[in-house]
Write a structure and sequence with these properties.
alpha+beta, seven-stranded antiparallel sheet, single chain, globular
Length: 139
């Protein structure tokens, strides 16, 4: 696994609205993976969760997560970002979920009656595969 910064090709991939899966840890240590939206910004990743979601409870209990982003044109090419949620804050006015919805759908987020929390993922290590494979990784 490599350490940041990520190469420009990986940043280009992460800048697009690709399919992604976040893995969090339950209190018993069991990993749980869930499809999610993400937004790459200045070397960090913005995630957003409904206040009632279990994954929010998981990251409050243990901030270690992995986010795997798949190239929507070729899922063999993917990047996994391993790190920690270093910041949680209320998404006042739903401004962050709206940014994510615009990134993925081109419109504001439609559900306006639930509280949401924004989470920032800081990357410790990353792993790329397919066209983003790190040459130092085993074949």
């Amino acid at each position: 696994m490599s350490k940041p910064p990520l190469p420009e090709a990986a940043v280009r991939l992460l800048s697009r609205p690709n399919p992604a899966v976040i893995t969090t840890l339950r209190p018993d240590g069991q990993p749980v993976s869930t499809a999610t939206w993400y937004l790459w910004e200045d070397g960090r990743v913005l995630l957003n969760m409904d206040e009632g979601r279990k994954r929010l409870a998981h990251v409050r209990n243990d901030p270690r997560v992995t986010l795997t982003v798949l190239d929507q044109d070729s899922w063999y090419t993917h990047v996994s970002l391993i790190g920690r949620i270093t910041e949680l804050r209320p998404d006042t006015g739903l401004s962050d979920i709206d940014r994510l919805a615009h990134h993925y759908l081109g419109n504001p987020y439609p559900q306006r009656d639930r509280d949401r929390v924004s989470a920032w993922l800081d990357i410790d290590r990353w792993h790329g595969w397919g066209t983003l494979k790190d040459n130092t990784q085993a074949g």
